[in-house]
Amino acid sequence: MGGLLLAALLLDELCAEVKRFHPLVGFGNYALFLERRLYTDKPRWQLISGIVCWCLAVMPMILLSVLFMWLISLLGSVWLYYVVSVIALYFTLGQKSLKQHGQAVAIPLQKAAVSSNDRKDEKLTEARYALSMIVSRDTQQSTPDQMATATIETITENTHDAIIGPLVFFVLLGVPGAVLFRLANTLDAMWGYRTPRYELFGKCAAKMDDILGYAPARLTSILMALSNPINFTKAMKSILFTGRRWYSPNAGLVMAAGAGALNIQLGGDAIYNGIGKKRLMLGPDDDAKSVQVNDIQRSIWLMYKTSFLCVLLILILELFFPTLFATKQIGWLL
Length: 334
Description:
Shape: globular
Distance between the termini: 14 Å
Radius of gyration: 20 Å
Structural class: mainly alpha
Helix content: 55-70%
Number of domains: 1
Strand content: under 5%
Largest sheet: 2 strands, antiparallel
Number of strands: 4
C-alpha cells in the first residue's frame, strides 16, 4: 500500500498537473452545469437545492469509479489493478502543482525586491496575478508580505486538501475513497462560501468537506508538526491555542501547524470580494517571526516532508500490521 502511495506521488512529481482534460476540471464544469440548472433564488429552497446538486455531482462519479475498478479487477491481473489505482490516485493529488503555484508567486517577489521601481511594479503585478490563481481573496493591493502570507496559507492548507486527504482515503477506501474526498473538496472550493449566493446553497458542500476532512486534517497537523522537530512544541501549541479557534475546523489546525513548524505568524485580516474579513492570527505567540518571501520555499519544503512522513507512516503500519493491507486488497474492493 505504501508503495502505491509513493508511486502516485512520484508520478505527480514527474508529470505534474495535466494541462488539458484534467478530470477535476471536467468535474468542475459538470458541477457548474448542475448549479446553473438547479440553483434557485428562493431562500427556503436553496439548502435543498445545494444538497441535491452535491449528490448529483458526487454520487455518479463514485459509482462510476467503483464500477470501473471492479471491471479492472475482473481481468484478474493484480499488477494492472495496481497501475490503474496509482494513475487514478495521481489525478487526485496536487503536490507538484502546489509547488509550481507557490514558486510562481515567490520568484517575481524575489525579483521585485532587487529591481528598480518600474521593474518592481511589473514583478509585483506578476506576483499578484499568480496569487489570484490560487486564493479567493482580493490581491490587487497586496503587499509582498501579505502575498507571501497568503501563498503559505494556501500551501499549508492544501497539503491536507490535495495530498494527505486523498492518500488517507485511498488507504481506507481505495480509488473511490480518494475520488470522494477530492470531489467533496472541489465542491467546497466552489460553493462553500458564506456569501448571499452560497450561504445556504453551499452549506452541504462545506459541511461534507468538514466531515470528510476531520480525521485527515488532524493527521496532517501532527505530521506537519513532526516535519520540523526543532519547532515541534511551537507547532503543537499553535494548533491547540490558535488553530482550534479558527472559523474553519480543519483548515485552521493545518495552517496553525504550518505556522508553528515554520515559526511564523499566519492569518490576520484579509479582503474578500471587496469586504474586509476579521481573522485570527495563527502561530506561536512567543518569538514568531514576520513572514518573509523566502518562507514560501520553506513552506513548500514542509509540504514535501509532511507527505513523506505520511507515506512512511503507512509503510510502518504495513510492516507491523500486514493483515491490514492484504496483498491483493486495495481499500474494500477486492
